[in-house]
Amino acid sequence: QEETWKHTLLLSFQSIGVIYGRLSTAPLYVLESVDVDVKSKDEIYELFSFIFWTLTIIPLFKYAFIVLRADDGEEGGPFALYSLLCRNARVGLIPSNGNTTKLLDLEDDELSKDESDNNKARKVIEGHKAIQHVLLFLALLGACMMLSDAVLTPSISVLAATKGLARSLAKLFSSEKTKDGVAHALKKYVPTPAACIVLVCLFGLQHQGSQKIGFIFAPIVISWLIFLTGFSLYNIIHHDEKILSAFSPVYMLNFVKKIDIRRWKLLSSIVLCIAGTEAMFADLGHFSKRSIKITFICLVYPVLLITYAGQAAFISRNLGGEEVLHLSESIPNKFLQHIFAVLAIFASAVGSQATITAGFSIINQCQALNCFPRVKVIHTSYDILGQVYVPDMNWLFMILSLAVTVVFHDVSKLARATGLAVSLGMLVTTCLMSVVISLQWEKGLVLSVCFFVFFGSIEAFYLSANVISFFSGGAWCLIFLFILFITVMGIWHYGTLKKYRFDLENKVSIEWLTSYGDVVRVPGIGFIYSDIETGIPAFFSHFIINLPAFHRVLIFVSFRPVPVPYVSPERKYLVGRVGPKEFTIYRCIVRQGYRENMRRTDDLEDRILECIGTYLEAEEGSGADSSEAECSARVGNRRVRFQVPEISSAVNEELRQLSDEKENGIAHFVGRSHVKAKKGSSLIKRMIITAFIFLDKNSRSPPATGLRSPVPALLEVGTVHIL
Q1: Which of 189, 208, 293, 651 sits at a 20 to 30 Å CA gap from 695?
Q2: What domains can you pick out in the chain, each with its CATH number?
């Protein structure tokens, strides 16, 4: 349906509380985190010029006008860009069956388009495995930066606000005689404990869902923006109107001409003015492109320019004063400073919401594509499927954020790590986006290179500034978080990929099953769940060898992630017959998008049986040869009755058999794998396999073993995977 302006305005209001809290609270710590002395008024002008052009080029031009157009079914983030590449070129390294993806693409006439063009970039990428590994690494790197940001942002935002609260309390409760002692005590002992309390409350609210939280937080952010606009305009008029002349790029160029190590380090704090920009794209599934773009252009962007201009005007007038770089010091009235301190606490908590929400979405996407261990995912909205809550990761984020706050308790040190995460994450988006421009949009290699060079050089410039400040700040914290997340992702991806290949190599043919002697067919229907989509899984052949009996109706079920956000119900199930008709063996592939919950299988049995009924009707109408090894057909979402008088008696009899066997009982067969490393494996490989075993045992059960079926109807068959 076409989006109405009423709906756009409603989404714009909600997006203020979810997406733009981070950008709106960045003035709390951008200039405060500068740990290098600013020596002259001209330097303040030059730094503000950098802020203006950075906000204009990156969030406005790059994200609002370009990157937001590269959505994958109204979804954003690094994995959304990667999924676009997977569908438009054979670059996917995630275990996925090509036939199911091709059938999905054929409905949109994408496959024929891809195969008919002569895109040179596509041919180069498809022909080099190393490039495909680089693209996957970039997607994982971008995901790790966003997860790290979900840990660092709450810490730095809340800590900056509580430091402002401590300064306000020092002015409120201290007298002239005790001013220095009280101020020192409050600044030393209040910020960190207060920040920890706020962080616990913030993460404790996450189970309410981003929709409710965003609706509550939006008025807070709006009040915050109005407050910023008011006193910033006062500072511009009262302190230094000439600061507006710094909109000219001449000041920025003068800064670059005189660049040295000291000035380079100054830029590592300036990049924080665009912290939260990536959330505009990552949280795209929660809102619409038009609402996100309108909110930023009409509200957030002009308010941020006024705020930074007002702060720069105050600093230029009071350069050399005590704590002049703190935003709270630029407020002209003491009473307003106390209001600001309280409002900043709430606004900083809101500002953390964008990265936390994006972190949940990234975990859900990675898990669906077998790049992260299985964790519980709760959909917090019936209307918006993209709004998810991941309890396990929420508490992990909280613990890590508390640890970072307690260990560092310094805004400038945390700024180094946050700036590095922001600049590196944006550079990853630029790399993936440049490939999307060439492959998906087919705009040519020249335009793709221009995009990469222009935006990539700016982001690399800021990245180098943060790298220079690595040893003088707390940037090593980001390295620790990156190693933690990339190790977990890499080990899980490696283990699941090896297991999948082991299953493919050890499967048996359908002829083996149909020709196996002395097999007893027992009443009922057997659902056999496996990761492979052809042949018989090794664990079921192991079961047949030890207990030569299986049900009169067998249905092999595979859950297959595909590189799209959601799969519509009419395209979700692929059903086919396996072997001759008299054996009544079928196969069903259940396709899941990377934003879908793979454990919600309450009516799975009925849906699959309905689809088999539809398939039998289609098979009868097309006159398919019953001897085909595996005849696939697309089936719909409509409910099928097993007694249909218009079809032939043979099909009617088969439908009746399905109904009767369902009454006799349904059993579920799943494989319980035990992983071992091959003899003679290297020490590193044995360590990786051991880590994978640990993650596998301590993660959620696979989709098939999470079925809501009676315990006696679920049979687990143990197998050993030698990797």
Answers
A1: 208
A2: 5-106+121-475 (1.20.1740.10), 507-722 (no CATH)
